[in-house]
Amino acid sequence: QVQLVESGGGLVQPGESLRLACAASGFTFGSVWMYWVRQAPGKGLEWVSRINSDGGTTYYTPSVKGRFTTSRDNAKNTMYLQMNSLKSEDTALYYCALDAAGLRRGQGTQVTVSS
Q: Residue 92: in which H helix or E strand, if any?
């Protein structure tokens, strides 16, 4: 069955960086678009980024563009989210997903940005 397992979250100060990873299994990872979505406290799911099957095309929500970078390693069935210059408003539970709405997503990893 499809499994998506996120890791790499934590507590950081504003301006610092984190790298999230998403380990995928149970499907042909290298053939599909992949997504990062997040849910801030008290808010709904928000699409963050997406990457095409070979990693050559990426898109970002405007609030993270220029700070976040999505990549993937199809040989390892893993997707990454490099997050730089983190802000308090980036605090959220981050999920990797098979769709932009986050309907098919993992359990998530918590990112907290606070001084």
A: strand 92-97
